[in-house]
Amino acid sequence: MNINQIEEEIVSEFSLFDDWMDKYNYLIDLGKSVEKIDEKNKKKEFLISGCQSQVWVYPEFKDGKIYFKADSDALITKGIVGLLIRVLSGHPPKDILDADLAFIDEIGLKEHLSQTRSNGLVNMIKQMKLYALAFKTQQEN
What we know:
By secondary structure, this protein is mainly α. The chain has six helices and two strands. The chain has one domain (3-140): Sufe protein. Chain: A. The protein is 54% helix and 11% strand. A two-stranded antiparallel ribbon has the order 1-2. The two termini are 28 Å apart. The mean pLDDT is 93.
């Protein structure tokens, strides 16, 4: 599946819920299924700055694709990073850099998060795209 197809799948899943409490619960459930990073990678260099809670995102580059693992001390935040991982993980750096992540607005995520969580979401996306840029540059050299 490509990034757009995964985004469409997420939009479809969120459309099954009528109210945001159900969507939050779904996010929390998603957070429980996120593949955790190894404890040794819970370092400052993988910590996302500007988040309300602690979030670590660890990238691995294998066979021309980036695979992300993450962890957070808050389940809702873990669910949010889990959505990003589901969309971006397992794709080439260029595809990650080109992804517009429209599903975030389509499901209404940003508007239903606190200001600090919304800032954290933006910082998670920014960091994942920076990893993609670094791996893309590395590939080209």
